[in-house]
Amino acid sequence: GGGIGGLTCAVALKDCPNIEINLYEQAHQITEIGAGITVWPRTWEILQSLGLEEELVATLQDGFRKDQSLGFEFRISDRKDGFTFHKLFTKGGSPCFHRQEIQNTLLKHVPEFCHIHLSHRLIRCEESEDSVKLYFKNGAEKTVDVLIAADGIKSVGRESIPNDGIFYTGTDAFRGLIPKETFAQLYPGHRTLEDPIIVSHIVVYPISRGRFINVVAFFTSLENEGKPLDRPEIREATKEEVLKEFSGWEDEVIQLLSSIEKPTCWAIRDQYSMKTYVSRRIALLGDAAHAMRPHLGAGAGQVVYSKLNDIYTDDQ
Ligand SMILES: Cc1cc2nc3c(=O)[nH]c(=O)nc-3n(C[C@H](O)[C@H](O)[C@H](O)COP(=O)(O)OP(=O)(O)OC[C@H]3O[C@@H](n4cnc5c(N)ncnc54)[C@H](O)[C@@H]3O)c2cc1C
To answer: Which residues cross the membrane (predicted)?
Structure first.
């Protein structure tokens, strides 16, 4: 897979030209449909060690801060008179990126000896003593020594390793990007123009050098947790349904939500934990191995971190 996991893995192998690497991606181009992503210090150090710092910093609004900085401001917002109840300070704050920018940067650093095969959707793999045979939807087949399955939460590679699957958490998230310039004209002085904030279950932060405001508005029906999902995992939403879900919230929230032109709605899924992520010749990476709910903003960070750890351990 050519997500953040697969690409980081390919970049991390850049000093191993003796290994033939093939990266198979189902889409016809390497792209991301998600929007913003928070990168915490440990993940950042790894991205730095891969030589990506300069290019990634160029996409940040204020560069990368090294001191203790405001990461998130937490507000109670589900009422008209909202208030701040906590400010989280961390080393470096909480650098927030556009996913596509991280992915583009990784892509530029993928070593030349890694062959990228687009439009290759893995549908099945067969593991034997000394190889893995891959079958793709386009009819192609390939036998490899080792498969690193970084194919996301609905991993095909995972089918070869005992697991209890994934489930719907009962939470959905409306997501959208608001061009900051337009928003600033409409609502000068709005809190999000200055600081990133978490409002109860709405997460807001600037990305792409502050050109966009990334909004993720979570809503949960606890009774639906674990139930089968009877609609697409990602769908287009309407402004009306978003506003209905958050009616009665403080004005700044309503201003944000009503400024998302084309909201999408994502069903949040989780995965039952697995006893092992590896079999003889298959290793799972990222969401394929340990998909998690996004509330700590740590899924992609965990992918980057676990990959590097594995590679360094193997080297030793
Ligand atoms: C609303 C939301 C907000 C989030 N915010 C954050 C955050 O702030 N910080 C953070 O660290 N994490 C965050 N996450 C989690 C993060 O998005 C994931 O953990 C991360 O994208 C996982 O990367 P991955 O490479 O393992 O999988 P993916 O990103 O899913 O990539 C998998 C790739 O494999 C390809 N693929 C899939 N199946 C096949 C197949 N059969 N054959 C070939 N290719 C295939 C896909 O097309 C894709 O390119 C968030 C998640 C959500 C839902």
So the answer is: none
Q: Are 10 and 16 in contact (CB under 8 A)?
A: no
Nearest of 52, 42, 41 to residue 11 by alpha carbon: 52
Ligand 1 center to residue 34 CA distance, Å? Answer: 8
Instruction: Please state the atom number of ligand 1 nearest to the C-alpha of residue 300.
Output: 11
Which of the listed CATH numbers 3.40.1740.10, 3.40.50.720, 3.10.150.10, 3.30.9.30 matches domain 167-269? Answer: 3.30.9.30
Query: Looking at 35-165, which runs of residues are DSSP E strands?
Result: 36-38, 68-76, 83-91, 96-98, 114-117, 122-127, 132-136, 141-144, 147-149
Mean pLDDT (10-residue bins), the chain, 316 residues:
94 94 95 79 89 90 77 86 90 83 94 97 96 98 97 95 93 88 86 57 84 91 86 93 90 94 93 92 93 86 73 50
Mutate to test the pocket of ligand 1, among 37, 39, 104, 117 (most ligand atoms within 8 A of CB): 37
**Residue 265's beta-bridge partner residues?**
174, 235
